[in-house]
Amino acid sequence: MTARIGVITFPGSLDDQDAARAVRRAGGTPVALWHGERDLHGVDAVLLPGGFSYGDYLRCGAIARFAPVMAELVPAARAGLPVLGICNGFQILCEAHLLPGALTRNRGLRFISREVRVRVENAATPWTRDYAPGQEVTLVLKSGEGAYAADPATLRRLEERGQVLARYAGGSPNGSAADIAGICSEDGGIAGLMPHPEHAIDALTGPSADGLGFFTSAVRALAAA
Amino acid sequence: MTRPDAVTGPDAPPRPSPATRPGAVTSPDTVARAAATPGRPQPHAELGLTGEEYAAVRQVLGRRPTDAELAIYSVMWSEHCSYKSSRAHLRQFAEKAPPTTALLAGIGENAGVVDIGQGYAVTFKLESHNHPSYVEPFQGAATGVGGIVRDILAMGARPVAVMDALRFGPADAPDTRRVLPGVVGGISFYGNCLGLPNIGGELAFDPCYAGNPLVNALCLGVMRHADLKRAAATGPGNQVVLFGARTGPDGIGGASVLASASFGGGGSGDGAGDEGGARAEQAKRPSVQVGDPFMEKLLVECCLELYAAGLVVGIQDLGAAGVACATTELAAGGGADIGMRVRLDAVPLRDASLGPAEILMSESQERMMAIVEPAGLERFRAICAKWDVQATVIGEVTGTGRLEMTWHGELVVDIPPRSAADQGPVYLRPSACPPGQAALAADDPSRLPRPGTGAELRSTLLSLLSSPDAADKSWVTEQYDRYVRGETVLAAPQDAGLVRVDEQTGLGVALAVDGNGRYGRLDPYAGAQLALAEAYRNVAATGARPLAVTNCLNFGAPTDPAVMWQFTEAVRGLADACQALGVPVTGGNVSFYNQTADAAIHPTPIVGVLGVHDDVRRRLSIGFARAGCDVVLLGRSAAEFGGSLWAHVVHGHLGGRPPAADLDAERALAGVLVTAAGRGLLEAAHDLSDGGLAIALAECCLAGGQGCRARLPGEEFGYLFGESAARAVVATAPGAGDEFAALCADRGVPATVLGVTGGASLEVAGCFTIPLAELAAAHRATLPALFG
What we know:
The complex is a heterodimer. Chain A is an alpha/beta fold. Chain A has helices at about 15-25, 70-80, 90-95, 150-160, 210-225; strands at about 5-10, 30-35, 45-50, 85, 100-105, 110-120, 135-145, 145-150, 165-170, 180-185, 190-195. Chain A has one domain: Class I glutamine amidotransferase (GATase) domain (Rossmann fold, 3-Layer(aba) Sandwich). Chain A is built from 5 helices and 11 strands, in the order βαββαβαββββαβββα. In chain A, β1, α1 (about 15-25) and β2 (about 30-35) form a beta-alpha-beta unit. Chain A is globular, with a radius of gyration of 16 Å. Chain B folds into 3 domains: about 1-10 and about 25-75 and about 230-425, Phosphoribosyl-aminoimidazole Synthetase, Chain A, domain 2 (Alpha-Beta Complex), CATH 3.90.650.10; about 100-230 and about 505-615, CATH 3.30.1330.10; about 435-465 and about 620-788, PurM-like C-terminal domain (Phosphoribosyl-aminoimidazole Synthetase, Chain A, domain 2), CATH 3.90.650. By secondary structure, chain B is of the alpha+beta class. Chain B is globular, with a radius of gyration of 27 Å. The interface between A and B is medium-sized, with 30 and 33 residues.
């Protein structure tokens, strides 16, 4: 049995098909989950894809956290179900208080769409175990509100407990605190990443195939579990 | 005007100033009343209809039109919807169309549909949103994207990519700093939120576009052959469903007032008398619509699910002229005996005070109209509910051949639909070559001082490379998502955008949009041909076979004989060139009235070419990424400088003849590029256009990271900066030089080995050596310095 990884589609999700393709390329089985259903269909892990859920009205991710599917996801994640939120998915995880801090408007106030170099800081999570600690990868950043922000105590705690998942190598393009590109829960199961690994799974359609490791990591971690 | 003598409905509050809204009165002007009061004065001129056109409407109906009918004819017979000044000329695109079996739907549909093989079809179209983008750049540009995406959606296709061609006034003009960031922000906002990759386009500056920016948006859609939809109401008894956003007071009269008239002298309402001017400006402001890309995303997914479920008999998007256009075109498309009965009071409103004429003219965004069989209605509603899309039955198809509309039970419209949709006025407007044209052509740039020494050639290259027209456009393109959907193989700054259609076979589609207003000004016939040739060449440079053409023809006021001459010349040139290159026009758009007071923009036909790529894994990039490859110049070079980037940037000069358009040479060159890409003979390819070989080589080096050492076969200045058409520069694959040379010889394409790739600088023997870092700095600093 290959790992069954759920991909939630909210109204306004855009990268759900890309995330599903990345799961397939990594050897897993993507399972489409619908925002309006209080049902995770027994998946082994969940991806919250990028996009503009509910138009990002009010605040990015602020409405999505109240979607029916989230009522199932939040307790499951707290009980150990691996969850990766990418871009808008990261914003939703912060709004749902599954991860600390918030994503704020980019420094410069413009949407940024470009390739970025990212350093994997914690390679011991279900989402990063196929990388070496400190490994640099090329992913895609595309967001208007991607600057990670948290109070000093939270930032200190993230650093101390190895919860900084990834950092922008060579400085943050958007004003993220401590150049943070992604964070995770203390046990590493819940992860949020602002750059998009699912757009970097094939050098034909992306800047590299470096991002595939996030998905192969999960498939292998779930097979081992 | 009229005294209100009836209430419109329980939820309609009293209106403060009915006269400020066209056709808005508290009691409906019914068909019966129109027949009984033939002499009532009507504001046809304010709505953009001439006295003759108004008389023609009365003739069609045999009475005066009601307010609602007048609203329908005023928008449907506007320049924007009826193409009344251009239609007689556009016929050439069909008359001169080359024989092709690739066209599944052509001119007259919402967009043309092209067979690309393996059961796939693609649809694509360019459309202007110039005037709204000047009045309110952000929303104007955003709704331009939204509108063209709905056109593609209405053909049955999934929209998969967007592109745009933009023109602004001088880059350093204060108003450009208002308009450009707003336009780019609006395209970014709408396209990104909709989840459509932006795969390229072009951007240029010229004083003629100050006060008349051009925002031409293109959308590409993909479908299976069987998915093709038509904008036709068929089957009496079928239901007419309006779905998507509610209707509000935005964009009322956009087609007739904004898109079909030129702005006043200063653009701020001066000269029309203070009060009248202020009111006129105020009246234009709501002519710009406001976009909600989230609603459009829902509408896209909802429509595709409705199509897949087989629930849609006919469909039309609501764009210019809103409900008026969708109902008349659907009914007219159904055939002579098809009619429609519509309850205008059933239209869901965002503003309950709207009357029938306003509802008909509103250009509220994110709306579609479908014809649905009664048996499918419940499933239709269920799919709409799944996507949180409001769907309302507003009428039904009839067999009467009449379009009838009621307002709370009273008949307010009763017209033959084709009289509004298809039988509008057609004008053969006077055209005359402007008196200064010959003098302009005689003002040859050969009299201008030219750089002679190596140091002068070096600084000329750097100044062209850093000029706003040739400078790196990352400031713009980094605001656009190019990655979403995971099928983008090439995007800006490549010669063409390229998206994969089939992951297994590698089938893909390439698209390029091009145009050069300076060439058009010097010779509109040649300018249109050169625009087509450049887009055609750009598509071929990726390895894709050019297949079909769309266009957006941007011109001044058609009532000016000089503008009409430019227009007719450009259309004739484009139609002749399409015939010569064997690529049919599948659809397009005309934008007139791009002028401020008496000054028209340069004639600016923007031409989009679509090509099919048999295997996107064999695509060619412009970048020199490997050292040690031969650099080869393809095509014939002559010292052609009329309308060139050099004359424009260095001397501010525009005169002489544009480069000669040699369409046989273009066809041969494209054949070489496509064949060589398919056989794997090339590492890189880049077309030569503005700024000639020098700019092309610099772009190849910067895109791939490898330098290049070249030796020119003749007079350096002419070779470096001349803009002869039908040329490209390529880097051959290791060991492929002989086979490539033989291919070029076989196809009669001149090929000159200039040198070899490698190193960290661009070196032209005997002229200059420029480190790539210096080239990059010159190329990349300009737009950030101007726009922050």
